[in-house]
Amino acid sequence: MSVLKLPRFEDVPQMARFLEGTHNYDMDKHTRLIYHPISGIVYKRRFVMAMQMLSKCVNGGTDCIIEIGYGAGLLFPTLSQMARQVVGVDLLDTRASAAVRGMLERLRIENVTLVSGSVMDIPLASNSVDALLCLSVLEHLHRGEEMQRAAATMSRVLRPGGVAVLGFPVKNIITRALFRILGYDDEVIHPSSHKDIITGYERGDFRLAATRIYPAFLPMDLGLYALVELRKPS
To answer: What SS3 state is found at 37?
Structure first.
């Protein structure tokens, strides 16, 4: 399978009409950045890195992968090839999740199930998931209780030996400036830094197995985006 297979831009559901007035209202702006010929170089690269990291940990016989915070569902075409069953977890309302289901139907993807939940409240049975993907979500949590609750919830649903691939922006002077250019206050939308996230999960039930930084030639604290592979002990 290809490492990354995004849907065509015209197949991606336009979410703004469903999400006006919510914290997800800028989802369409984010989608346009991903598909833009220039900004998409960076935005797609984090997807490629995440799929490479995840694909090394799963195989065609993997039963279940979950993606937390699936948004417009851009990664479902790729994830659906990695496991028998994919579960998408997000807080989208009924109309927004129905729009993503419509995309899945158009793409004839039949092994993806969408459920309502969050990184701190995953509505799945304990020890029921082989692998977990969560990109650009954890930085929105506050360090301390929220991060601890998220880590405990992920650990609960993962089977012993399961893997979690987490991605998040690196917080530094460069990324603060970039987010400011895009119209965001990094301190407001990202209360937790990359260090807060990694420290929070290392203190929990997980073992840090691998780390990747984009761009790869920079040290983590000067990078733009970080990915970690975490393992739940067998």
So the answer is: coil
CB atoms within 10 A of CB 38: 7
- Residue 210 tokens, joined: 């691998």
- What's the pTM? 0.92
- Return the DSSP state at 8: P
pLDDT, position 75: 98
How many other C-beta atoms lie within 10 A of the C-beta of residue 90? 23
> Which domains are assigned to the chain?
9-115+124-231 (3.40.50.150)
H helices of the chain, where? 16-19, 27-35, 39-55, 76-79, 94-106, 145-157, 173-181, 186-189, 194-202
113-125 as b/e: b if 16+ CB within 10 A: ebeebbbbebebe
CB 169, CB 224: distance < 8 Å:
yes
Splitting the chain (234 residues) into consecutive groups of 10 residues, what average pLDDT does each group show? 84 80 68 92 94 88 93 96 96 92 97 96 96 96 91 96 96 91 85 92 88 93 95 92
For every residue of 175-207, DSSP letters joined together read HHHHHHHTT--HHHH--S-HHHHHHHHHTTT-E
